[in-house]
Amino acid sequence: MFSIPIRWIMALLLSFSFIYTTFAQTIQLLDRQTLVPIIGLTYHYADQSGVSDELGNITLRFQKGESIHFSHVLYGKWSLKAPELQTALQQGRVLRTEQAYHLQQVTVISLKQTDEKDQRIMISDQERLHHDAGAILNQNPVVNGIRKSGAFAFDPVMRGFKYEQLNIVIDGLQSAIAACPNRMDPPTSQIALNRIKQVEILKGPHALRYGIGLGGTINFVQEDPNFSSPNGVYGRYSSMYEHNGNIWRHEGRVGLSGENHDIGIMGSWSAGTDYVDGEGNVVPANFRRGTVGMYGDFKVGRRDLVQVTVNRNFARDVDFPSLAMDLRSDDTWMGSLRHTRTFQQRNLLSWTSSIYLTKVDHLMDNLLRDLNPRMSNARVPAFTQNYGGRTEGLWKLGNGRIYAGADYRSESAQGIREREFLMGPMAGRVVLDNAWQDSQIQKLGTFVNYNLPLGAYMFSVSGRLDVNHAVGKDILPEFEQANRASQVTQLNPGISLGLKKDLTDELNMSVWLARVQRSGSLTERFINYFPVGMDPFELVGNAALKPETNNQLDFVVGYKKEKIQVEFNAFAAYLTDYITAERTELTPRIASAPGVRQFINIDRALKTGVELNLSQYLGWGLQQQFAFAYTYGQNLSLSEALPEIAPLDIRYALIGNHLDSKLHTALRLRHVTAQNRVSALFGEMTTPGFTLVDVDASYAITSQLALKVGAQNLLNLAYYEHLNRPIGSDRRPLFAPGRNFFVMVSMKFP
Question: How far, in Å, CA of 397 to CA of 347, rounded?
Answer without folding.
Answer: 6
